[in-house]
Amino acid sequence: MEQQVTELAYALDTFYFLVSGALVMWMAAGFTMLEAGMVRTKSVAEILTKNIALYSIASIMYMIVGYNIMYGEGLSSIIPSIGAFITGDNTVEEVMASNGDIYYSDRSDFFFQVVFVATAMSIISGAVAERMKLWAFLAFAVIMTGFIYPIQGFWTWGGGFLDELGYLDFAGSGIVHFTGAVAALAGVILLGARKGKYGPNGEINAIPGSAMPLATLGVLILWLGWFGFNGGSELKVSDIESANNVAAVFANTNLAAAGGVMGALITTRLLFGKADLTMALNGAIAGLVAITAEPLMPSPLLAAIIGAIGGVIVVFSIVGLDKLRIDDPVGAISAHGTVGIFGVMAVLLSNPDATVFGQVAGLAVIFAFVFIASLIVWGILKLVMGIRLSEEDEYIGADISECGLESYPEFSKKS
After folding, report:
1. Whole-model pTM?
2. Which residues contact 114 (CB under 8 A, 6 or more apart)?
3. CATH tag, 2-403
4. Per 3-state DSSP, what percentage of the chain is helix, strand, and coil (rounded to 5)?
5. Rounded CA gap, 292 and 209, in Å?
6. What's the gap between Cα 228 and its chain centre?
7. Which residues are 198's β-sheet partners?
């Protein structure tokens, strides 16, 4: 009887893990639609190509080396071990002998983790859109998903030194979202802004996206996928406590996103006199990022407040980065990076185990490692193959220059 109960719980938790991973995988569609709507028509096909390719690269690289780097034994709490390829799965005997420590399939864990690394890489795609060479981006994706992301992930989720220092990050405001934004920032600094984005006298010229319906659809897909992102991070659902925790995480995730939308909308109304849709969309993402580091412990009201603060922050961050002439077509660095910092620190509002030292140490280490490593990789790619499209290719659009086709050939405009 005991074995039957254990096997049923194992099957249920494995299935829950896989469904959660599938929801997170669907976030790839969300990022793709969001970015496709926020860039100009002449760059949409290239954005679509980047997103389906980066997901494929992430899956393969994490299978070859990334997963074993992140969750291997480690040579020390700082230096991970390097292993190749994922191995077999658990036997009935191993599960029964673990006394409940093994409660889902290793392959389900791999699948759930691989969609997280793809999410981090998707963040970069939007920030460097419309002026980066496709193959330079994909080359960076190989290193990012195979090495940079797994190494910093090992330091916390793999039981490394950040975990020992008390850094808490339930589902990855720092480990996933801040990491992706920092890598994007390094690339954007070397890449420079799109032609015409900034004038010689400090002017900031808006470059409207091609399709707001697509961008809105993308955010709603991300909103849905985030239930798997945060909910799946509870890791199990087969007992009463875990089931209640999953329900709390789902409710808080939804409320934070709603708070983010309203925070951003109200802020833009006060600042600009208009309800800015693009800011509202980034507000939803900001609310989701803000709650991701701790979606379980806050009350529903606090979750909505955390999301609303994230929505306010993202508006000021997008405006501020523009003033610094950091060109981010989709607002990814602000929504995932600036708000990621807030999300990590917001853990202190509800989790009594969190410390200021642990949270700040986590952010500082992640920023230093990811920024320096990414800057080196981007710099090498710039020297070896170049990372920026030529002025002519940027003018005609990445669709033609990189992919040889257009997404909207009947009515596309060269602008």
Report:
1. 0.95
2. 21, 58, 59, 62, 63, 66, 67
3. 1.10.3430.10
4. 70, 0, 30
5. 28
6. 13
7. 204
Give the Å distances, CA to CA, from 204 to 130, 196, 257, 331, 395: 17, 9, 29, 15, 19
Q: For the chain, which residues make up each domain, given as ranges?
A: 2-403
DSSP code for 388? B
Distance, in Å, from the CA atom of 319 to the CA atom of 322, rounded to the nearest integer, reads 5
- Could you tell me how many residues make up the chain? 415
Between CA 36 and CA 55 the distance in angstroms is 16
Please choose, from the candidates 36, 295, 32, the residue with its C-alpha nearest in 3D space to the C-alpha of residue 172: 295
Both tokens of 90, joined, read: 């658990």
* Tens digits of pLDDT across the chain (415 residues): 667 667 888 889 999 999 999 999 999 999 999 999 999 999 999 999 999 999 999 999 999 999 999 998 889 999 998 876 776 677 776 777 677 777 788 899 999 999 999 999 999 999 999 999 999 999 999 999 999 999 999 999 999 999 999 999 999 999 999 999 999 999 999 999 999 999 988 899 999 999 999 999 999 999 999 999 999 999 999 999 999 999 999 999 999 999 999 999 999 999 999 999 999 999 999 999 999 999 999 999 999 999 999 999 999 999 999 999 999 999 999 999 999 999 999 999 999 999 999 999 999 999 999 999 999 999 999 999 999 999 999 999 999 999 998 888 876 554 4
Cα–Cα distance for residue pair 392/400, rounded to 1 Å: 11
Quick count: other Cβ atoms within 10 Å of Cβ 333?
Answer: 27
- Side chain identity, residue 398: A
